[in-house]
Design a protein that fits this description.
Oligomer: single chain
Strand order of the largest sheet: 8-7-6-9-10-11-12
CATH architecture of the largest domain: 3-Layer(aba) Sandwich
Strand content: 15-25%
Bound molecules: NADP nicotinamide-adenine-dinucleotide phosphate
Number of strands: 12
Number of helices: 14
Shape: elongated
Length: 319
């Protein structure tokens, strides 16, 4: 008799093709811990892997309730919702999908920079609402090319953003936990010091406790009334209340935001503002990149259950 297929619990709503792949290879329990506690108690002893997204919550209690758990495969590069320390204590491996989404997220960061500086969504509305016809040309915007860019987090994606910004003739400065060997990029020891020296500040660090509200009122003050903020990292990295106040009082010029503190709930105070461009966490959201992420996330599950080395484990030091 063939061995039973491994049981996998999903910890979030996953992309439909990923669900299809999971159903083809495993016995899948779709968020049973959230939807059906009685059934969860029954199936929990059999669950050997969790398929999660970067934002799904896999906490110490959930890990403790799964005695046969061996692997948590994250569909995404960020894993701030996963209690990696609790997983490690139990000998549970954690994998994620780095690199395959660098270009996509960097493209969106440049898109948001252009959108917020050149007011592209506002320009679209100007045409649609007939204001061009009634009122004439729209007010002038801000130039991006040749501007001073500050990158908070010069990691895989941060470097892809820098490369694109070079093509726009921008000067590049950054902050990170450690200084990089990045010729021509000026290093600043803090986000506040960096913000003071740039026109555009792009945030692309991981989320989690280490970066919570890293971009606070002081950093926004340092960015100043001519400065723009773009956040493609995690909502938790920016103090959203302080940002709303700074935008409302024009203490910064504008913001382009792909991520929010309490997704998918975006405060009305933000949607009411004209100097922001908002996107619904779509940094990696193209068919091509989601497919590559799926290949990696699913590939990690396959490798694990075939006894092969994992393709992309979360690094040891990054808990
Ligand atoms: P990465 O290669 O690990 O780079 C992270 C960078 O952040 C590193 O340079 C790191 O510094 C820096 N950093 C970490 N903590 C910091 C702190 N407290 N202060 C200043 N800098 C700090 O990660 P990645 O692959 O570029 O991804 C970055 C993040 O992007 C992910 O974790 C995820 O949250 C987010 N993301 C968002 C989307 C989206 O859809 N919007 C998509 C993908 C990823 P060191 O180099 O010195 O360690």
């Amino acid at each position: 008799m063939a061995a039973e297929r491994p049981h996998v619990l999903t910890a979030a709503r996953l992309w439909a093709p990923m669900m299809e792949a999971l159903h083809g290879a495993f016995v899948v329990h779709e968020r049973t811990h959230q939807t059906d506690p009685a059934d969860f108690a029954r199936i929990a002893p059999q669950v050997r892997a969790i398929a999660a997204t970067g934002e799904s919550r896999v906490d110490r209690d959930l890990i403790a309730s799964l005695p046969a758990l061996e692997l948590i495969s994250v569909f995404g590069v960020g894993y701030d919702g996963i209690d990696v320390a609790a997983a490690r204590e139990r000998g549970v491996a954690v994998t994620h999908t780095p690199n395959v989404l660098n270009d996509e997220v960097a493209d969106l960061a440049l898109g948001l920079l252009l959108a917020v500086a050149r007011r592209i969504p506002q320009a679209d509305r100007w045409v649609r609402e007939g204001r061009w016809r009634r009122e004439g040309p729209m007010p002038l915007a801000r130039r991006l090319s040749g501007g001073r860019l500050g990158i908070v987090g010069l990691g895989r994606i941060g470097q892809a953003i820098a490369k694109r910004a070079e093509a726009f003739g921008m000067s590049i400065a950054y902050t990170a936990r450690s200084r990089k060997d990045a010729e021509g990029y000026a290093y600043f020891p803090s986000a506040e010091a960096l913000a003071r020296e740039v026109d555009f500040l792009v945030v692309i660090t991981p989320g989690g406790a280490g970066t919570r509200k890293l971009i606070d009122a002081r950093v926004l003050e340092a960015l100043g009334p001519q400065g723009y903020l773009v956040n493609v990292a995690r909502g938790s990295v920016v103090d959203e209340a302080a940002l709303i106040e700074a935008l409302r009082e024009k203490r910064i010029a504008g913001a382009g935001l792909d991520v929010f503190e309490d997704e998918p709930n975006v405060p009305e105070a933000l949607t009411a503002l004209d100097n922001v461009v908002l996107t619904p966490h779509v940094g990696s959201a193209t068919w091509q990149t989601r497919r590559a992420m799926m290949d990696l996330a699913f590939g990690n599950l396959q490798a694990h259950f075939a006894g092969r080395p994992l393709l992309s484990p979360v690094p040891e030091m990054r808990t």
